[in-house]
Amino acid sequence: CKHTDLDSAEYWECHVRNLATTLFHPVGTARMGPADDPRSVVDARLRVHGIERLRVIDASIMPNIVSANTNTPTMMIAEKGADLVKEDWRKKERVEL
């Protein structure tokens, strides 16, 4: 951006185009919601709508990105997801016995 005048609109456009980057913390690509919401992918138990025995248990279910690193909330989602899977298997075992 040396070819532009310091603090000009062209200078800042050059910086944005050349230096802007992502931190690769995408979230919200598998929205949680009711099955009748065409934008939702999973239900409250993290099960994918319309597909049996498939869950999404990661940062993609977050409706909004957090203001810090997504690692801790993602671990919390994983812990909760593991609990949900165990609960469902326990219920299934009781019914089949």
Automatic annotation (TrEMBL):
<dbReference type="InterPro" id="IPR012132">
    <property type="entry name" value="GMC_OxRdtase"/>
</dbReference>
<dbReference type="GO" id="GO:0050660">
    <property type="term" value="F:flavin adenine dinucleotide binding"/>
</dbReference>
<dbReference type="InterPro" id="IPR036188">
    <property type="entry name" value="FAD/NAD-bd_sf"/>
</dbReference>
<protein>
    <submittedName>
        <fullName>Glucose dehydrogenase [acceptor]</fullName>
    </submittedName>
</protein>
<comment type="similarity">
    <text>Belongs to the GMC oxidoreductase family.</text>
</comment>
<feature type="domain" description="Glucose-methanol-choline oxidoreductase C-terminal">
    <location>
        <begin position="3"/>
        <end position="78"/>
    </location>
</feature>
<dbReference type="InterPro" id="IPR007867">
    <property type="entry name" value="GMC_OxRtase_C"/>
</dbReference>
<dbReference type="Pfam" id="PF05199">
    <property type="entry name" value="GMC_oxred_C"/>
</dbReference>
<dbReference type="GO" id="GO:0016614">
    <property type="term" value="F:oxidoreductase activity, acting on CH-OH group of donors"/>
</dbReference>
